[in-house]
């Protein structure tokens, strides 16, 4: 049971760090994060739309953020890596949800903001998207408005695999408005999508595979042709010594330095230099 508790504890800590970062760098367009344990410490990769705001002048903001995470969440040697969303920002559900929430706080009408967000996501190449805005939109009563376009999956394992979800909150005078954005990305593959390959295309693929195998065999034969005995000054006794340390062809020998060759039994300084010169010529011919 101790192992299960450890997994739960680590996931809770991860979620708390994510929520803290979302609040701390709200204006920079938080698009998600990933935590990895490395021998050097804990690497925290943060995807943002505006990295300059997170890094700060001379890295002052990111240094402060690193210290805060270390103290608040007891993270071992945190190393924060900032990644820019760039052109992908329109296909990131969390970034688009935050942008929509910001637009509502600035006074945009919810219909205009919803349609504008959907249009921008679809223009970026998404297969489908859905924007859900809920709260006191026009009066005292709570209501929910949905803006949907393209292909959207709602439930099941397929929805978990192909739909990217983001959530944000807009704080207005009448109350809090919840914003949810769901995006099906361009590379999403659905179970019912099939591709029919013609017999001609299959033959072409088989021929390409055969050609690749032939090329690999030719390269292997070339390697076999360049044996150690092709080098002058390398006798059977020296070949045996080289084989002991795992060198069986000239290709393996090219990575060895002159100093390493000198240490092998039966090879002196002069012979080592000669071998290196011959090696260069043979490798040029093979290429």
Write out key terms for the chains shown.
287 residues; alpha+beta; GMP Synthetase, Chain A, domain 3; Ribosomal protein S3 C-terminal domain; DNA polymerase, domain 1; 3 domains; 4-stranded antiparallel sheet; 3-stranded mixed sheet; 11 helices; 49% helix; 20% strand
Task: Write up what this structure looks like.
This protein is an alpha+beta fold. It has three domains: 2-84, K homology (KH) domain (GMP Synthetase, Chain A, domain 3); 90-184, Ribosomal protein S3 C-terminal domain (2-Layer Sandwich); 199-286, 5' to 3' exonuclease, C-terminal subdomain (DNA polymerase, domain 1). Helices cover 49% and strands 20% of the residues. A four-stranded antiparallel beta sheet has the order 5-4-7-6. A three-stranded mixed beta sheet has the order 1-2-3. Helix 4 (93-105) runs antiparallel to helix 5.
């Amino acid at each position: 049971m101790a192992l299960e508790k450890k997994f739960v504890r680590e996931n809770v800590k991860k979620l708390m760090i994510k929520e803290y970062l979302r609040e701390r760098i709200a204006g920079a367009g938080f698009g998600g994060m990933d935590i990895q344990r490395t021998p050097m410490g804990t690497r925290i990769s943060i995807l943002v739309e505006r990295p300059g705001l997170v890094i700060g002048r001379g890295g002052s903001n990111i240094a402060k953020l690193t210290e805060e995470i270390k103290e608040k969440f007891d993270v071992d040697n945190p190393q924060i890596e900032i990644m820019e969303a760039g052109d992908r920002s329109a296909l990131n559900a969390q970034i688009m949800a935050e942008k929509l929430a910001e637009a509502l706080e600035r006074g945009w009408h919810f219909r205009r903001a919803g349609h504008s967000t959907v249009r921008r996501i679809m223009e970026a190449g998404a297969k489908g998207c859905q924007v859900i805005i809920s709260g006191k939109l026009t009066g005292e009563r709570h209501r929910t408005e949905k803006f949907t376009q393209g292909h959207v999956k709602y439930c099941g394992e397929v929805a978990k695999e192909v739909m990217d979800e983001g959530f944000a909150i807009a704080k207005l005078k009448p109350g809090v408005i919840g914003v949810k954005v769901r995006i099906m990305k361009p590379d999403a593959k659905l179970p019912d999508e099939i591709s029919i390959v013609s017999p001609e295309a299959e033959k072409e693929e088989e021929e390409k595979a055969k050609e690749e195998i032939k090329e690999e065999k030719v390269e292997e034969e070339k390697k076999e042709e360049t044996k150690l005995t092709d080098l002058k000054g390398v006798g059977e006794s020296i070949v045996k010594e080289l084989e002991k340390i795992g060198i069986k062809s000239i290709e393996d020998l090219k990575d060895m330095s002159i100093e390493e060759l000198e240490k092998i039994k039966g090879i002196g300084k002069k012979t080592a230099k000669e071998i290196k010169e011959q090696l260069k010529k043979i490798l040029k011919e093979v290429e």
